[in-house]
């Protein structure tokens, strides 16, 4: 089956071509079947591949399609690498992707046929690019997928392109991504210069030979990490993600929760030996992740748009994944990617269901008491909130606590700060839950009449994701529970090369139980505090003041970027337009034309029609010719 | 007779011819001056031919033959030119070349 791995990205590509080229001719049911069916089929094949990869003693296999770049001694084939890491990501991408495609057939139902087909075409193209990213056997293939998902993110955020604000958000996402991509590209160049190759199986074993204090390795790791900062929305390149909520909600679920933003994590996990060996990079990654997690969580405390809260939550959770990568807990990071994909997609799809029922309203101050009208959405959303908060028994608890435990082993201070972030997570998520689903309904009467539970195509994915959010954690149980950590065993061949360079801190079992109990207890306190504050929420309409105002305005980071970067660039651009373009280039080009015109005007005078003058000119010409022939 | 006399005469005739071509207004006079130039060249050719033959190179006699070529060309050119002047006179009733500036602008 593995030799058919090329089918996995190819089927969504086919879906993209059919829906994209036939968007004027296809009916909505056909479009939905083609779009969703391609991803479901890809999921089935991924499942078969996964079972093959799971057999003990499996070694990574590379399926080469064709030679992409061959220059001198540099060979970059278009090849897929099938190993434990990529097989796992395949399942996540195609699995969650299929559910979101099915959800979209109902959510996007109001679009005209052409828009509907265009949406599914873009979504399929995105799945194709993401699969290329995780399946690529070398950094260039990964970069192809990296750029592809950035492009599809732009296309899908600006899907309703007639709205200028959405277009600006799409531009912002793409441009910030490109800044990161620039770093990534420089990293690839350095890799080629240092190792002469970009293929994982050739470069990564050689990394160890560079030694512990290699400046080159630090540069490569840092540059690649800059790419990850852009793609996975870490500080300072994170402001695009909340604005990206302008796109349709399933897009937010797929791209900005479950898959594209995890590309950075995948890249670091794939290059784990580089990040374990390079000096100082671990500290940088951990700190960036930590600061991002705390900053985003603080902003989420005061947001009133249901999707913005989830967006900042995503940024925050990605920060946690980077904390895990930074302290060397690679398995924990991938584990959190998986569980986060489940519950964050669930939360986003649930919010989409709510927005749909509210007729497009996204402000939670106008919601309330929705659990009466939307039982399934309410129950699944609650499960998502419990999972992200880290209630024991649900998937989020296991992955988050594993990260926190490893952080404690690295540094108790980092653990403390990360724990504060986790408590903020629980608080703002349950603030969102209580304001939206409990209490009295605060919307208008027409909205109230419109409230209904969503159709099956929407609730079915919600239910599936809720089940996964509950049981998804049991594959990665920590050792204290006495059951084997299936995920760690599965991924051990991927992360084994890092092991000699990591300083493993083993926590005693009692300490681990203590940490788990501490976090669980504090989380429950947070939830109860949120309930006491928000369960019967009424919007008193007063403007927020003081520190809360800073949080509500996102720490004014967007305004800061606007002043430091956007305005100088715009004035530089204006300068170029007014001065350089007008007085410089235009003057030059127009001047050439004017010179030709002047010369022509002068030359015209030779043609005065007087025969005598013509004869004179002939004589002059003859004399000149004679003189020239004398000298030649 | 030293050959320089012939050369000076030829140059003088040629320069007079050029002056006439450039300065005269009457088209027929201009033609006469062109003929003058051609004949000056003929004179030069014959003079040099005799000079070289006397010096021992008998193949220089072909220069005298070239004079006939020049005369034939002059005749052909005059016939065409006079035809043009006749047409010109029929159209404008003048042979003044300053009148013929219709190519202007």
Keywords:
heterodimer, A: 632 residues, mainly alpha, two-stranded antiparallel sheet, 72% helix, globular, B: 105 residues, transmembrane helix (chain B), NADH-quinone oxidoreductase subunit K (chain B)
Tell me about this structure.
- The complex is a heterodimer of chains A (632) and B (105).
- With 632 residues, chain A is mainly alpha-helical.
- In chain A, 72% of the residues lie in helices and 3% in strands.
- Chain A has 25 helices and two strands.
- In chain A, strands 1-2 form a two-stranded antiparallel ribbon.
- Chain A is globular.
- Chain B has helices at residues 3-23, 27-55, 62-92.
- In chain B, helix 1 (3-23) packs antiparallel against helix 2 (27-55) and helix 2 packs antiparallel against helix 3.
- Chain B is elongated.
- The model of chain B has no long low-confidence stretch (mean pLDDT 90).
- Chains A and B meet through helix 25 of A and helix 1 of B.
- Chain B: It catalyses: a quinone + NADH + 5 H(+)(in) = a quinol + NAD(+) + 4 H(+)(out).
- Chain B: Belongs to the complex I subunit 4L family.
Topology at a glance:
The complex is a heterodimer of chains A (632) and B (105).
Chain A: H1 7-21, H2 28-54, E1 61-71, E2 74-82, H3 84-107, H4 113-135, H5 139-157, H6 164-195, H7 200-207, H8 215-231, H9 240-243, H10 249-258, H11 263-270, H12 272-277, H13 281-300, H14 306-326, H15 330-357, H16 375-389, H17 395-410, H18 412-437, H19 445-450, H20 456-471, H21 486-495, H22 509-534, H23 546-552, H24 557-604, H25 611-631
Antiparallel strand pairs in A: 1-2
Helix pairs in contact in A: 1-2, 1-4, 2-3, 2-4, 3-4, 3-10, 3-15, 3-20, 4-5, 5-6, 6-8, 8-11, 10-15, 13-14, 13-18, 14-15, 14-17, 14-18, 15-16, 15-17, 15-20, 15-21, 16-18, 16-20, 17-18, 17-22, 18-22
Chain B: H1 3-23, H2 27-55, H3 62-92
Helix pairs in contact in B: 1-2, 2-3
């Amino acid at each position: 089956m593995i030799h058919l791995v090329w089918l996995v990205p190819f089927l969504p590509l086919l879906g993209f071509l059919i829906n994209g080229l036939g968007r004027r001719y296809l009916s909505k049911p056909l479009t939905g079947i083609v779009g969703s069916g391609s991803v479901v089929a890809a999921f089935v094949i991924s499942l078969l591949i996964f079972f093959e990869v799971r057999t003990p003693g499996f070694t990574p296999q590379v399926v080469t399609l064709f030679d992409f770049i061959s220059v001198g001694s540099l060979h970059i084939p278009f090849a897929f690498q099938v190993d434990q890491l990529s097989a796992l990501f395949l399942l996540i991408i195609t699995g969650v992707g299929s559910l979101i495609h099915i959800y979209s057939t109902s959510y996007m139902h109001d679009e005209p046929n052409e828009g509907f087909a265009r949406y599914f075409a873009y979504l399929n193209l995105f799945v194709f690019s993401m699969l290329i990213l995780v399946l690529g056997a070398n950094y260039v293939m990964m970069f192809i997928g990296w750029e592809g998902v950035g492009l599809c993110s732009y296309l899908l955020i600006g899907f309703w392109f007639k709205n200028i604000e959405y277009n600006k958000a799409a531009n912002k996402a793409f441009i910030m991504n490109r800044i990161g991509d620039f770093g990534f590209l420089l990293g690839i160049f350095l890799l080629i210069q240092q190792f002469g190759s970009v293929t994982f199986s050739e470069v990564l074993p050689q990394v160890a030979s560079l030694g512990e204090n290699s400046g080159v390795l630090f540069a490569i790791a840092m540059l690649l990490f800059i790419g990850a900062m852009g793609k996975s929305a870490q500080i300072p390149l994170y402001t695009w993600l909340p604005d990206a909520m302008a796109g349709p909600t399933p897009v937010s679920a797929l791209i900005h929760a479950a898959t594209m933003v995890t590309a950075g994590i995948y890249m670091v996990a794939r290059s784990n030996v580089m990040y374990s060996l390079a000096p100082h990079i671990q500290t940088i990654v951990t700190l960036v992740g930590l600061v991002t997690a705390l900053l985003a969580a603080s902003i989420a405390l005061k947001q009133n748009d249901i999707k913005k809260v989830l967006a900042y939550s995503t940024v925050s959770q990605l920060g946690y994944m980077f904390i895990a990568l930074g302290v060397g807990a690679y398995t924990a990071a991938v584990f959190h990617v998986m569980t986060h994909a489940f519950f964050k997609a669930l939360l986003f799809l649930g919010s989409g269901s709510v927005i749909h029922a509210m007729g497009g309203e996204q402000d939670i101050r106008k919601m309330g008491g929705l659990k009466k009208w939307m039982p399934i959405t309410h129950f699944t959303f609650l499960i998502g909130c419990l999972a992200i908060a880290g209630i024991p028994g649900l998937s989020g608890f296991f992955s988050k606590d594993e990260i926190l435990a490893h952080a404690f082993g690295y540094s108790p201070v980092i653990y403390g700060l990360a724990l504060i972030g986790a408590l903020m997570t629980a608080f703002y998520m349950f603030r969102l839950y209580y304001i939206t689903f409990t209490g009295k309904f605060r919307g208008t009467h027409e909205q109230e009449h419109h409230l209904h539970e969503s159709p099956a195509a929407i609730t079915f994915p919600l239910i599936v994701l809720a089940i996964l959010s509950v049981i998804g954690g049991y594959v990665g149980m920590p050792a204290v529970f006495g059951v084997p950590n299936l995920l760690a065993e599965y991924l051990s061949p991927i992360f084994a090369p890092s092991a000699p360079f990591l300083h493993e801190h083993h926590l005693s079992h009692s300490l681990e139980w203590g940490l788990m109990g501490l976090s669980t207890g504090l989380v429950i306190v947070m939830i109860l505090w949120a309930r006491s504050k928000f369960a019967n929420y009424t919007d008193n309409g007063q403007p927020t003041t003081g520190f809360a105002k800073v949080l509500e305005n996102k720490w004014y980071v967007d305004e800061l970027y606007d002043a430091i970067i956007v305005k100088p660039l715009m004035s530089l651009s204006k300068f170029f337009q007014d001065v350089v373009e007008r007085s410089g280039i235009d003057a030059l080009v127009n001047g050439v034309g004017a010179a030709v015109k002047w010369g022509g005007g002068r030359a015209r005078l030779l043609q005065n029609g007087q025969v005598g003058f013509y004869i004179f000119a002939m004589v002059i010409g003859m004399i000149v010719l004679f003189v020239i022939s004398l000298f030649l | 007779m030293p050959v320089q006399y012939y050369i000076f005469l030829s140059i003088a005739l040629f320069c007079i011819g050029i002056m006439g071509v450039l300065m005269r207004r009457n088209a027929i006079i201009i033609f006469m001056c062109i003929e003058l130039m051609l004949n000056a060249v003929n004179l030069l050719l014959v003079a040099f031919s005799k000079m070289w033959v006397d010096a021992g190179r008998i193949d220089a006699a072909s220069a005298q033959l070239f004079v006939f070529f020049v005369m034939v060309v002059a005749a052909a050119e005059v016939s065409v030119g006079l035809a043009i002047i006749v047409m010109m006179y029929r159209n404008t009733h003048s042979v003044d070349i300053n009148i013929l500036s219709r190519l202007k602008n």
